[in-house]
Structure formats: structure tokens, C-alpha cells
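Figure 3 (text version): C-alpha cells given as input.
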């Protein structure tokens, strides 16, 4: 453990105890997890106390841990036929609501991550907390501590459906007012819920059921092609023949000189 990381770890342990769990340093930024009950208290201390001095919130985002750590790809034991041969089962966004996979390996499904910056101490910090209720994810708003959280929290509410309790103006910011669902959730259908178009007869925008069929966009798996291998063999044979001819010519010239 480096000296800066060790110093921060000791500082957090002495000030917060079990309320904050430090994780590894990634990209030069210390990561920490805070229980949602202590979210506001810890963040206010991080801003106000001089030993921390995190004056600025630079980013806030939501995270959906549905199917976290699970993979639907099979790139080792697949056949040589079929464009979708690398996919096993139905991943996030390609399943019926009743058959959706459950989050695994994490305590709760929805999390909130913030990045903080301390100018006076030249430190960066990454904080995370989890919403306790998956059905109605609620996390206290940080707007009263850092005003820059305002639009970030609206964005996380719009795209993930995370409710920030105490936010002064929590409404959609990226999607339309009549939009159905939250598009960054992993169980949101890839084709959407409704189709939107302008009706020239009604002279307004209308919402209709989606008519297109869902499809799986599978990246192409690059494999060895025998045609290219044949070209490589031909090129190698030509190079070998050329080298033999060159050696024969050199041998002939040497024999003429010796004769």
C-alpha cells in the first residue's frame, strides 16, 4: 500500500470507523463505500472538515448491477456455423420481464457513484452507496451539500429511475416527458416500449406500440480463413522458389569463376 493510500485509509478509519469501507485505489483515485444511512453525514464531513476538504463534486452517476459478473458470451466452445454462435441465453435487454435475471454478487441492484475533488489537499475520492430497495431505489440528495449534484441526480433519476430524496426539482432531463421506463436499466428492452412519430393528419406527435422485432447485435467473431491460409502458402512457396533460383545462379557463377 502506497503512503498516500495508507494515510487516507488511516484517516478514514479513525474518523468514520465502520461507516465507510475503503476499496482499492484505481487510476490514482481512492474508492470508498458508504452505507446509505450515513450518506449525507459522511459527505458533509468530507466537504466541511479541513483534513478532507472535498469542496467540489465533479461527477455523479447511477449504476445498475443487474446480472453483474455474469456473461452471456461463449467464445471458446462454439461451432463454426451461425452469426450468433457466441451468445448463450438472453442477456440484459433481451428477455421477458417475468424471466429477467436477478442481480448477483452485490447487496443491492442500484448504486450511486460520486467523484469528489479537494483542491487544498490535492486529493480525489470515489464514493459509492446502494439504494436499499430495488423496487423503489431511494438515495438522499446531495444538492444541499454540493449544488453541482443537481443535474447529475436528475440524469440518474431519468435514466436509472433512482429517486433522490430531498432534491428540489427532480424531473426528467434527457428523455421526453411522456417517456415510459428508464433506458439505462439493464432490463429495459433494446427496441424500447413505444414508437414515436409525427402524424400529419392529427398534426401532432403520436405514440404507438413498437412493431419492429427485437434482434441481437452480435459482434463478428474473427476466425482463421482457409482462403487466406492458401494465399500465405502460395506466397511462401514463391519466396522459397525464388531463393532456390537465386542460390542456383550464385552457385553457377562461382563454378564459372573456378573453371
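Below: residues designed for each position.
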Amino acid at each position: 500500500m502506497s503512503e498516500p493510500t495508507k494515510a487516507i485509509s488511516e484517516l478514514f478509519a479513525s474518523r468514520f470507523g465502520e461507516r465507510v469501507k475503503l476499496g482499492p485505489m484505481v487510476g490514482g483515485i481512492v474508492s470508498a463505500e458508504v452505507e446509505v444511512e450515513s450518506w449525507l453525514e459522511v459527505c458533509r464531513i468530507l466537504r466541511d472538515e479541513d483534513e478532507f476538504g472535498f469542496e467540489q463534486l465533479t461527477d455523479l452517476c447511477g449504476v445498475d448491477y443487474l446480472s453483474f459478473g455474469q456473461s452471456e458470451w461463449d467464445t471458446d466452445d462454439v461451432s463454426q456455423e451461425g452469426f450468433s454462435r457466441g451468445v448463450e441465453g438472453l442477456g440484459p435487454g433481451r428477455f421477458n420481464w417475468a424471466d429477467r435475471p436477478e442481480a448477483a454478487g452485490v447487496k443491492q441492484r442500484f448504486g450511486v457513484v460520486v467523484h469528489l475533488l479537494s483542491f487544498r489537499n490535492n486529493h480525489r475520492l470515489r464514493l459509492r452507496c446502494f439504494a436499499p430497495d430495488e423496487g423503489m431505489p431511494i438515495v438522499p440528495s446531495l444538492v444541499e451539500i454540493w449544488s453541482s449534484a443537481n443535474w447529475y441526480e436528475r440524469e440518474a433519476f431519468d435514466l436509472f429511475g433512482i429517486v433522490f430524496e430531498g432534491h428540489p426539482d427532480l424531473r426528467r432531463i434527457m428523455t421526453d416527458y411522456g417517456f415510459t421506463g428508464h433506458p439505462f436499466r439493464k432490463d429495459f428492452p433494446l427496441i424500447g416500449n413505444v414508437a414515436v412519430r409525427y402524424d400529419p393528419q392529427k398534426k401532432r406527435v403520436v405514440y404507438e406500440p413498437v412493431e419492429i422485432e427485437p434482434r441481437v447485435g452480435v459482434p463478428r467473431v474473427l476466425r482463421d480463413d482457409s482462403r487466406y491460409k492458401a494465399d500465405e502458402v502460395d506466397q511462401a512457396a514463391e519466396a522459397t522458389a525464388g531463393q532456390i533460383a537465386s542460390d542456383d545462379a550464385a552457385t553457377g557463377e562461382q563454378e564459372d569463376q573456378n573453371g
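The radius of gyration is 30 Å.
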